[in-house]
Design goal:
The protein has 653 residues and is an alpha/beta fold. It folds into five domains: 2-87, Ubiquitin-like (UB roll); 115-201, Roll (Ubiquitin-like (UB roll)); 211-357, Domain of unknown function (DUF4445) (Nucleotidyltransferase, domain 5); 376-413 and 528-652, Nucleotidyltransferase, domain 5 (2-Layer Sandwich), CATH 3.30.420; 418-520, no CATH class. It has a six-stranded mixed sheet with strand order 14-13-12-17-19-18, sandwiched between helices. The protein has a six-stranded mixed sheet with strand order 30-29-20-21-22-31. Helix 6 (251-258) packs across helix 7 and helix 10 crosses helix 15 (603-615).
Length: 653
């Protein structure tokens, strides 16, 4: 039986069968309802109100009896059992531009870069003879003969789309053309594969830009660099939130969502939409005026893209089922994808352009880490190094140029501002650092997007770096104890019983953009302790597995855009980072996209990433109880074993 579902924000109702989830009905009606937990019913962010009709609630988690009485329901956990009318509350909308989007990463072209020797793309000018009654050679053979005689390419593969346009193009161009090829070679100079990407009319100046793209698909953020393959220069950069966030804030949530009706296709379309939008953005930024005219760069002129990302992101991009990643024994469908064609992938660059997804290692250690190890220089040093990318999934690598071991731990989205009542991502209006007066317990804070010279800006929430800072300040001033319990004996109105239990007020309603208090609850603190505990336990177990005490680590490299904003002192105080001299820490920013850039330019660097992936030893932390024991010990501030944090103990005295 079918039922009529009316959403107050949709122009038209939809008809759906009995048992259809409200979230699925909303999708069919073109109504956006966020599901940050991937539709598992954990986050409560898909709450809607049933104004008329009947639904069956599979779960009422995060809904009070009063909420249910008022008609509220979780869209991802409620099924249609009759005609219904639904009110959809205003949904959280991410700012379309990250506050860090226009922050240009300084990148230097590798010394001695030579496009003819270092990379795979070749641009070949051709001067072909015109057909005649005496020379009846077909157009394709004429092209292949020219490539062989004028450039030495003997095994060129030509696609059907190029074949379709070849004849007319060559005649219109009077048989003067420029061929663009991707040439894969062994290091002894023998060609492995020659793929014809495009044929352009006329002869192109050898100094004319030839465009490539380095792409990092992060769980939270996608970054694209537009690169001139002739000069090696990065001409434009852009970042945007991964559109998949609305369907899951961590990889597990997205895998779960992908397994539902149409979820896999939807997630693929969402991330492609983000990437293709960024390609448009970087091309616009690279366009410029010259000699009184506009030199316009178009995404279709990009002939090569190198992509880095964790294993789940790459699977979802390519439309490959990722369910095995979250199920024992946690095995990917692939770690090394074959070379792909842009039109098949869905990237809106040259349809015959080459798409190279860099190799990963295992289910939870992907090519974002292998690319990061290369770009950080970790594989080229004899110093014992700990490399870590902090995000919704914490990937960790320990070693040097001689050996590498790696693991991953689920940190969850708390450090991305999710799973926290007043949490938000690092956009304009987010509190990024907090200070607490040890006598009055009053707060001061710094807000992203504050005006010149620190002019006041009202906050609307608190992001990951702010949460680390806040938790450290609460611990060091006695607002919370080692177990994260809020001290109710302190004389301050900031500690109170709130809607979600005991809480500490960071900013009063009069101070905020929305007029509501920004708070942190006991549950929020537990989430943060679990996140930091998982990361600490991850690198502690990894170090113990190879017999390397933490004090032997000579340098700690932290990648990822989030890591760039961590306050070392505060991160040590809560037990997120190991207690070691500050000069051993280096914050490198987005090492993944930088590694993709190096692989885009230099075939030897690309081969190096493959070697890095092959020689990494992956340790599955869930194989025994070692990680669990270390995790439980790390669920305190800073740790149950205070000898691991002497500087924090000294600071408390």
């Amino acid at each position: 039986m079918e039922h009529l579902v009316r959403f107050d924000v949709a122009a038209e109702p939809v008809r759906v069968p009995t048992g259809t989830l409200l979230s699925e009905a909303a999708r069919l009606a073109g109504v956006e309802i966020g599901q940050p937990c991937g539709g598992q019913g954990r986050c409560g962010r898909c709450t809607v109100q049933v104004l008329e009709g009947a639904v069956r609630r599979r779960s009422t988690l995060r809904l009070s009896p009063e909420d249910v009485e008022a008609g509220y329901a979780l869209a991802c956990q409620s099924v249609v059992e009759g005609d219904v009318r639904i009110h959809v509350p205003p949904q959280e909308v991410l700012e379309r531009r990250l506050t860090t989007d226009l922050t240009v990463t300084e990148i230097t072209v590798p010394a001695g870069y030579n496009p003819d020797l270092d990379q795979t793309i070749r641009r070949v000018p051709l001067n072909l003879s015109e057909p005649s009654m005496e020379d009846q050679t077909d157009d394709l053979s004429r092209l292949l003969t020219g490539l062989r005689s004028q450039a030495g390419f003997t095994g060129v593969t030509v696609s059907l789309p190029i074949l379709r346009k070849l004849g007319q193009l060559m005649r219109d161009a009077d048989w003067q053309a420029t061929a663009i090829l991707d040439v894969r070679e062994l290091f002894d100079g023998r060609a492995l594969e020659e793929w014809l990407i495009d044929v352009l009319p006329g002869r192109v100046d050898e100094d004319e830009p030839l465009w490539g793209a380095a792409i990092d698909i992060g769980t939270t953020t996608v970054t694209v660099w537009l690169v001139d393959l002739v000069s090696g220069e990065v001409k434009a950069q852009a970042s945007e939130y991964n559109g998949q966030i609305a369907r899951g804030e961590d990889v597990i949530s997205r895998i779960v969502y992908a397994g539902k009706n149409g979820g896999e296709t939807e997630l693929r379309e969402l991330v492609l939409g983000t990437i293709n939008g960024l390609l448009e953005t970087v091309c616009k930024r690279a366009s410029h005026k010259e000699f009184g005219g506009l030199i316009e760069v178009k995404p279709q002129e990009v002939v090569k893209a190198v992509i880095a990302g964790n294993s789940t992101m790459i699977h979802l991009l390519l439309g490959i089922p990722a369910s095995s990643i979250r199920l024992t024994p946690f095995v990917t469908a692939f770690n090394q994808a074959p070379l792909l064609i842009a039109g098949q992938v869905g990237l809106k660059i040259n349809p015959q352009g080459v798409v190279d997804c860099l190799p990963g290692v295992a289910s939870y250690v992907g090519s974002d880490i292998t690319a990061g190890v290369l770009s950080s220089g970790m594989d080229d040093t004899h110093r014992i190094t700990l490399f870590m990318d902090v995000g919704t999934n914490g990937e960790i690598v320990l070693g040097s140029s001689e050996w590498l071991v790696t693991c991953a731990c689920s940190a969850g989205p708390a450090f991305e501002g999710a799973g926290v009542i007043s949490g938000m991502r690092a956009t304009r209006g987010a509190i990024e650092e907090v200070w607490i007066n040890g006598g009055s317990y009053e707060t001061t804070y710094r807000v992203i997007g504050a005006g010149p010279a620190g002019a006041a800006s009202k906050p609307s929430g608190i992001c990951g770096s702010g949460l680390i800072s806040l938790l450290a300040e609460m611990f060091m001033t006695g607002v919370v104890d080692k177990a994260g319990n809020i001290n109710t004996q302190l004389e301050t109105p900031r500690i109170r019983e709130g809607e979600y239990g005991l809480e500490y007020v960071i900013a009063w309603g009069a101070e905020t953009q929305h007029g509501r208090e920004i708070t942190i609850t006991h549950t929020d603190i537990d989430n943060l302790l679990r996140a930091k505990g998982a990361i600490f336990a991850g690198y502690r177990v990894l170090a113990d597995s190879v017999g390397v005490p933490l004090e032997m680590i000579e340098q700690m490299l932290i990648g990822g855009s989030f890591g760039k904003y961590i306050n070392v002192e505060k991160a040590v105080q809560i037990g997120l980072l190991p207690d070691m001299p500050w000069d051993r820490f280096q914050f490198l920013g987005n090492t993944s996209v930088r590694g993709a850039y190096f692989a885009l330019l230099d075939r030897r660097k690309r081969e190096r990433i493959k070697e890095i992936a092959s020689r990494m030893t992956y340790i599955e932390l869930s194989a025994d109880n070692t990680f669990y024991d270390a995790f439980m010990s790390a669920l305190f501030l800073p740790h149950t074993d205070l000898s691991l944090f002497p500087s924090v103990v000294l600071g408390e005295q």
